[in-house]
Write a structure and sequence with these properties.
CATH class of chain A: Alpha Beta
Number of helices of chain B: 12
Number of strands of chain B: 12
Shape of chain B: globular
Order of helices and strands of chain B: EEEHEEHEHHHHHEHEHEEHHHEE
Strand order of the largest sheet of chain B: 6-7-8-3-9-10-12-11
Oligomer: heterodimer
Structural class of chain A: alpha/beta
Number of domains of chain A: 1
Shape of chain A: globular
Order of helices and strands of chain A: EEEHEEEHHHHEHEHEEHHEEH
Distance between the termini of chain B: 30 Å
Structural class of chain B: alpha/beta
CATH topology of chain A: Rossmann fold
Radius of gyration of chain A: 21 Å
CATH architecture of chain B: 3-Layer(aba) Sandwich
Largest sheet of chain A: 8 strands, mixed
Chain lengths: 330, 321
């Protein structure tokens, strides 16, 4: 059973005198216990909206959210049941998500108090334990956020989200405000937490490189839709959707071999006026007539690989024939 | 041929209670038609070291050393003459074109203003030049783009327009400070290709400042790694990235995910916080975070030694050979 299941999620924004903007369209994502699922796509593709809708910060216009077998939707910001708090969120910017004028230990104890966890006397000890769990000294509890680096602050934000004893964390670009070195450390921490505490992670990121490194499974989003999904190594070795392939080919390689990344022509279209047919077709190097008017659904193409592309089945066949080396499951 | 020759550049900034050394004895050359990369983490002094050359630092900053541009020293040049040289010969592109453009002025006005000021070019001539450049940086329909405003363009298109603007005076040197950091990778790739093409077509010299070593690998010919205001390693970009010799360069590369490395292998973070101006350690600035540091690293500032085409500020040299 999945820890988190997002089924057919829809988020639309109504606009007076205009068509509504469908920011997230019929998106389904599941996250298992101890599994790291990456959600990638260009800015404006709806990945943050999906994350916010999943935890109830944005009201979905359709679909259901199921946490540990219990349906949470409709989520209400006001009264979240204790079950619902087992789904927690970590934001991009720990400078903004921590209170600058309250000691770290207090902020974590606040989270415990709101949830009614532990007695007043126990909370400070529990807060120090949580700090140690994310690799900080217990003494950090008596200090203020400004005394820490960006990476350490992100650790604190993660510690606070762990106060609720979550089964799933949704992380919205948790690494993108950090230097490479801090990024590496936080990425490693996420892997450790997920493995050691059976924590499911939905990791939203525009950085396919880091997602490739840590995620077990990847969902690729384009203009509000999930267009491909699969195990990370397999998806990386033989992307079935041309958009996924474009994303991978655009990543620079820091190895001194002068690899020039490939650009994807055109721009992400206005989500208020998505193209007919396949939403990616105007930018797709492989588009043919059908793509302009028939919308391809996200379907299982081969074992545990889903893609929304009319050519996916063909590509799966040709690519498994050994044109692209297939990475060994690690 | 060397276009820009920077020697022993030092920049310090006076604060209320101390004088902070931001850039410390930095020397490098930018060759004609070459892309010189300056890499380092935030706070390593890479941007300040370039703004200092153009006289763009606040008055509280003191700049020492020399920077010979086509033979003339920019550091000792009178401000009026410096503005003239920079305006005509050096183009600047920043990270976020939305903040470097004026939001209320049309693209055309902002592209041509500069040329009309520095060269007294007529409005009509300036317009012709701007349209040609917009076309050269692949802005669709330059005529209509000329009349539009910055907010009407996407981030990638705005950066292309900013590059066109930087080229209006036909500069010899383009300084690009994190030009693709705010962009998606798919859009970034287009800008990298554009910079590479312009360099080839125009024999333009480029100083590329970025923390992203993948971007460096795609574009840079020569590369300097900054840490704590000093160059810790420099050399040909390909060799430097393929076989880094300074422990800091090595650590920076080890911290990055690489598309071809095995998944699941933990990334290696560098322990400890980056060096900050004002609390720089004695000796080698990297020693508190360095796994290879010996006693002398704590006391003696390592010189940038030349080893063939490589410059290395590490007496331990653990990755020699």
């Amino acid at each position: 059973m999945s820890a988190l299941e997002i089924r057919n999620l829809e988020v639309s924004y109504e606009r007076r005198g205009h068509e509504p903007v469908r920011a997230v369209v019929d998106a389904s994502v599941s996250v298992g216990r101890g599994e790291i699922v990456g959600l990638v796509g260009e800015s404006g593709c709806g990945k943050s909206t999906l994350a916010r809708a999943a935890v109830g910060l944005v009201r979905p216009t359709g679909g259901t959210i199921v946490l540990e077998g219990r349906e949470l939707s409709p989520l209400d910001r006001g009264a979240r049941s204790r079950e619902a708090t087992r789904l927690q969120m970590v934001f991009q910017n720990p400078y903004a998500s921590l209170n600058p004028r309250r000691r770290i230990g207090r902020q974590i104890a606040d989270a415990l108090a709101i949830l009614g966890l532990g007695s007043r006397a126990e909370r400070p000890r529990k807060a120090r334990e949580l700090l140690e769990r994310v690799g900080l000294p217990a003494s950090a509890a008596s200090r203020y956020p400004h005394e820490f680096s960006g990476g350490q602050r992100q650790r604190i934000a993660i510690a606070r989200s762990l106060a609720a004893d979550p089964s799933v964390l949704v992380l919205d670009e948790p690494l993108s405000s950090l230097d490479a070195s801090a990024q590496a450390q936080i990425a490693n921490l996420l892997v450790d937490l997920s493995h050691n505490f059976e924590l499911g992670l939905l990791l939203i990121s525009h950085d396919l490189g880091i997602v490739h490194q840590v995620a077990d499974r990847v969902c690729v989003m384009y203009l509000g839709e999930i267009v491909e999904e699969g195990a990370t190594d397999d998806l990386w070795a033989r992307p079935l959707h041309p958009y996924t392939e474009a994303l991978i080919n655009a990543i620079p390689h820091p190895d001194g071999r002068r690899f020039m990344p490939e650009a994807l022509p055109g721009e992400v279209p206005d989500p208020a006026r998505p193209p007919a047919g396949c939403r990616f077709h105007p930018r797709c190097p492989l588009a043919f007539e059908r793509c302009a008017h028939d919308h391809p659904a996200l379907e299982e193409v081969v074992d545990r690989r889903r893609a929304a592309c009319w050519l996916a089945a063909d590509r799966a066949l040709t690519r498994s024939a050994g044109t692209v080396p297939r990475a060994v499951e690690g | 041929m060397t276009l820009l020759d920077v020697e022993q550049l030092r920049v310090s900034i006076a604060t209320d209670d101390a004088r902070l050394q931001i850039v410390d004895r930095v020397s490098y050359q930018v060759g004609e038609g070459r892309i010189f990369g300056i890499a380092g983490e935030s706070g390593s002094g890479k941007t300040v070291s370039v703004l200092a050359l153009m006289g763009l630092l606040p008055k509280s900053a003191s700049v020492k050393g020399t920077a010979r541009f086509e033979g003339n020293d920019l550091v000792s040049m009178p401000p009026a003459r410096l503005r003239q040289v920079c305006g005509r010969e050096i183009g600047l592109v920043f990270q976020d074109p939305l903040t470097s453009f004026h939001p209320m002025l049309s693209v055309g006005r902002q592209l041509t203003e500069h040329l009309r000021h520095h060269f007294g070019t007529s409005r009509a001539e300036a317009r012709v030049r701007a349209l040609a450049l917009l076309d050269e940086v692949r802005i669709p329909d330059p005529e209509s783009a000329f009349e539009r405003y910055p907010h009407e363009f996407s981030g990638g298109m705005r950066q292309r327009i900013a590059i066109a603007g930087a080229l209006m005076c036909e500069p010899r040197l383009l300084i690009a400070d994190e030009p693709t950091t705010a962009l998606d990778v798919t859009v970034q790739a287009g800008i990298l290709r554009l910079i590479d093409r312009l360099r080839r077509d125009r024999a333009l010299s480029v100083i590329l400042i970025t923390h992203d070593l993948g971007v460096m690998s795609a574009l840079a010919d020569d590369l300097a790694i900054f840490y704590g205001g000093r160059i810790v390693e420099d050399g040909r970009a390909e060799a430097l990235l393929a076989t880094p010799r300074h422990p800091y360069t090595r650590a920076l590369l080890d911290a990055l995910p690489h598309p071809e490395t095995a998944r699941g292998a933990p990334l290696l973070g560098i322990p400890g916080p980056p060096a900050q101006p004002g609390s720089l350690p004695s000796g080698c600035v990297f020693h508190p975070r360095c796994a290879y540091a010996v006693d002398t690293c704590r006391t003696e500032v390592p010189e940038l030694r030349r080893i063939g085409e490589r410059g290395l500020a590490c007496p331990v040299d653990p990755f020699a050979g």
